[in-house]
Every structure is written in C-alpha cells, then in structure tokens.
Design a protein that fits this description.
Layout: E1 2-5, H1 10-21, E2 29-32, E3 55-59, E4 62-64, H2 67-78, H3 88-114, H4 122-142, H5 144-147, H6 153-168, H7 179-188, H8 192-197
Parallel strand pairs: 1-2
Antiparallel strand pairs: 1-3, 3-4
The protein binds benzoic acid.
Amino acid sequence: MKLYSNPASPFARKVIVGFSEVNAIDDVEVINVIGNPVDSGDIPITENPLGKLPTLVDTPFGTLYDSRVITRFIDHHYDGGLYPSSTLFETLKMEALADGIMDAAVLMTYEKRVRSEDKQSEVWMDGQWIKINRSLDALESKGKEFLNSSFNIAHIALGSALDYLDFRHSDRAWRSGHPKLNEWSEVISHRPSMIATKPA
Ligand code: BEZ
C-alpha cells in the first residue's frame, strides 16, 4: 500500500501512527507530497478527487480517504483494537473532537499561508481559535475519563492535534490554562510512534 502524506499534516500523522501502533508500518510506503486547498500540487487527484491528504492506495478496498476512513480500515484489516467496542461511540466522538481541532488549526495555517496579508481575516482566524480553545477547555474540565482510558484512536488523534498546535500556532500558547492536557500530551509524546512522526 502507498500512503500519500506530508510530514506537517496532523491527519496524515494520525494514520502513520495508527499503522505503527498495530505494528504494520512496514506494509505501507509513505510518499510525501505537497498541496494546499487552492492548488492540489502533487497530490494524486486521480486517486482522490478532493486533492487532500492522507490518501491510501492499493488497499484490498481500492483507494481510501480521509483519515477517519483509513484508520477504520487499519483497525479492521489488522484487528488493531483502535476502536474498542465497549466505548465505540465515545471513541468516535473524541476522535471527531480531535479531528475538529486539527481542521480549525489547519484552516488557520492556510489563511496565513495562502491569502495575501491584506485579505487575511483576524475575525475568521479568531473564530477558528475559539473553537479550538473551547474544545481544549472541555477536555481539560470533563475529559479525565477519556484521557485516562485505554489507548485508542482518539488518543492518537488528540496527540497529533496538540502537537500541531505547538508546531504551527505556538504563539497561542495553548498549554497555559490547560495543565491536565499539557501533562497528558507530555506522556503520549514519549510513545515511539509519536517520536518517529513529530513534525519539525
Ligand atoms: C502544514 O504545513 O501545516 C500542513 C501541510 C499539509 C497538510 C496540513 C497542514
């Protein structure tokens, strides 16, 4: 299988960490490509007409996208235990929350990168940050059970999302005001799968 990826993409990272955590990273060749919302660049649009990452080709089910579909595939194909049946809907919800943090954070990155400075909207960027901060507040105050639950896909997604905030939006200093999440992210960052994929 071939995974079209980018080392900065938190969604692609989530998938690579998923493969690593089920000990299947050797089954996938990672191909780094570059694209953005207004130029698909070298992302293979014949495989994914959306021109988005990650895209996984040559699976037994053909080409698969997006990250949530691919991680469900990994779990199914390798019987990975990434989506525990006893907490399935909680896991799916928390994965969606972490993916939403990534979405908002990536949109902020592209606002700064793709639009000329005079067209960038502070209101719009702040609106994305409000979504992120509200989600972090919710995890900080009500997420104890989830954060301490047995390792699953939502933990991979959240770890990838938090590292992306450090990577691209360190000026927003998400760690101050979220001490429990800060501590949790330090612990998860020591997993070999997370160390191997840390964006730099
Ligand atoms: C980034 O450079 O931040 C980025 C690259 C690919 C996908 C998402 C984000």
